[in-house]
Structure formats: C-alpha cells, structure tokens
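User: Second chain of the day. Same drill as before.
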Amino acid sequence: MVPYLLRAYTSRNPNAAVKVSVMNRAAAIERLNENRDELAIMGMVPNDKPTFSIPFLNNELIAVVPKPPYFKNTRHHVMRF
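Assistant: Same format as last time:
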C-alpha cells in the first residue's frame, strides 16, 4: 500500500525527494530523533518516545514524525486520500 501512497504524493509534489528504507522500529525512532528522517511508517507506535503519530489506514500503518516543535519552522504537507 505504501508505494501507491508515495506515488500519489510525489505526483502531486514533483519537487519532493523520497527515499524508502526498511528497518526495525528502534532504528526508525533513532533516525527520527536524530533528524535524519522526516517520516516513519510503522505498525506499532511507541508510547514512551518523543514522537507524534497519525493513523491513516485501517490496517494500522501509522505515520510517525518527531514530536513538535519539529514543524515549527518547517513547511509540511498533508496527504489526502
């Protein structure tokens, strides 16, 4: 499902650079905390980590981003499907 969502997003935002990596949850959270990634999609969101999550599909794939104020000085896009 994620490749279809990314294709829709990049077709609407042709200047967006998208790189997909597969890793375990701990590595994904570490990369978010170090600002090496802007988004992670995972099935189980940790309650004890400084992240903000938005469920967006019925099968429990959840977008996770660093906890605000990350977006304070960043322009971000909301994907609508």
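DSSP finds two helices and three strands in the chain.

User: Great, on to the next one.
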